[in-house]
Every structure is written in structure tokens, then in C-alpha cells.
Write a structure and sequence with these properties.
Length: about 140
């Protein structure tokens, strides 16, 4: 099988802060124009927790505390012909103000209630919501 056709592993970071979750509006990549939490590719030899911490610092510059590796989704992006297994970490906000540290990848950061998320949602979050997942009920 062509290695380009193998699923990749992504990590989504659900950061809880006063009843809200941090979401960014994606740009410059698959899912452009959709809303998603911080996250990215799991690097070779990296733990899920370390990936979550790294991605949040790289993308938004805030400090978080990992709580639990909680769920996963199987995401096939038909138009882009990409396939991901996305592992979700639930984390608590510690300090800082979200900044656009990768403006080529994200238009803006905002905090949203889990029950009032912006639209359109990134496929991984659509799939997570279909499972009935709630980061505030672990």
C-alpha cells in the first residue's frame, strides 16, 4: 500500500476554561473556513500529552494542563483524499491569552460553549459530536 494512502494520526486539544472550549477558524489547509480546536500531527516517538502541549504553545501560546486522553474519531476527508485517526485530549486552561502564532493556519481564536459551537465545524469535531462526547462530562 502506498504510504501516502495510510491514515495519519492527529491530536485535537479540547481546552476547558470557565465552561468554554477554545476554537480557531482554519485557513490554508484542509477544512479551510471551518472551526476546530488547536491540534496537529502526532510526531514519531511523541506522547499524546506532549503533542497536545506542543501544539497549543505553537498555535496559541497559552499554558494548559492535560487532564485526560478521552476519545478518538476516524475521519476521512473525501475532497482532499486525506484520512486521519484523531485522538482527543481534554485539558484545562492554566494561563495566557490565545494569540495567532500561525496566522497562515488560523484566522482567529475564540472561546465557545460546547453546546453553542460555531459553524461550520471541522470534520473531526462533527464526528466527535455525533458520538455524544462532552468534554465537561468525563
Amino acid at each position: 500500500m502506498d504510504s501516502e494512502k495510510r491514515p495519519k494520526v492527529g491530536v485535537g486539544v479540547l481546552i476547558r476554561n470557565n465552561g468554554k472550549i477554545l476554537f480557531g477558524k482554519r485557513k490554508g489547509a484542509h477544512g479551510e473556513g471551518t472551526w476546530a480546536p488547536p491540534g496537529g500531527h502526532l510526531e514519531f516517538g511523541e506522547s499524546i500529552e506532549d503533542c497536545a502541549l506542543r501544539e497549543v504553545v505553537e498555535e496559541a501560546g497559552i499554558k494548559i494542563k492535560p487532564v485526560e486522553s478521552k476519545s478518538f474519531t476516524n475521519d476521512f476527508f473525501e475532497k482532499e483524499q486525506k484520512h486521519y485517526i484523531t485522538l482527543f485530549m481534554v485539558c484545562d486552561f492554566v494561563s495566557g491569552t490565545p494569540k495567532l502564532l500561525e496566522p497562515e493556519k488560523c484566522e482567529k481564536w475564540e472561546w465557545f460553549s460546547w453546546n453553542e459551537l460555531p459553524k461550520p465545524l471541522f470534520l473531526t469535531i462533527q464526528n466527535l459530536k455525533k458520538q455524544g462526547f462532552d468534554p465537561f462530562r468525563l
